[in-house]
Design goal:
The chain is about 20% helix and about 20% strand. By secondary structure, the protein is an alpha+beta fold. Helix 5 links the parallel strand 1 and strand 2. It is an enzyme of class 2 (transferase). Its EC number is 2.7.7.2. It holds the Pfam family FAD_syn. Keywords: ATP-binding, FAD, Flavoprotein, FMN, Nucleotide-binding, Nucleotidyltransferase, Transferase.
Length: about 230
Amino acid sequence: MAEVLGWEYRPPIVARSDRERVLSSWAPYCRNVVPLEYQVEFSKVRYLTPRQFVERLSTDLRIKGVVAGENYRFGYKASGDAAELVKLCEEFGLSAFIVRSVMDTAKRSYNGATPPVNSTDKGQVSSSRVRHALSVGDMEYVSKLLGRKHRLVLTVNECCLQEREKIVFPKSCMLNMPPADGFYENCGLVNGGYLGLCRVTINSETIDIELEDKNSLTSNLFREDQQLGIEFG
């Protein structure tokens, strides 16, 4: 969507390769079924009216129902709202469930003030709120907003360095949004399985990972194109 509209690129909060793991955590709320994800090209639906969009969902994707937040907008120039979605779904024989916003009960303040995230911010949990918390490095707050620890995914390539007691990744290896530059303790390193506790230093150019158990630093960590994840405590 950003590419089509010419917006500035922003790394995703969840790496594309990590979305299946996150979706699998929803299974207990979906009758123990892991949801599948389908990508619809924005360029192909960008100019659809709200009616045409719901019709596309019904006839092309053959869905049975939709779930959307109360602030959901859809259709060309966001001309449709949640109420119209319910009306159109009923017309096309689809179920529609509108979910109320989850409000941020923590309401973190910085320097005595709680800054608004954007012009539509009413205190609800949102991706903008998560991004703001990441940008100031408040990982406890990020975990509360997400309902899980934030995982930064890195791809191993020839630019990565494995030193005696640490691993150094250039920031170009990141697949999603990192927290602010700084020092982070009590992190976890994963690569499909749990590798152990680590300390992480993020600066303007690199991400330095120091494992508490030095024996965990094996050559198997450094297979090219392998991915490593840092979970921030």
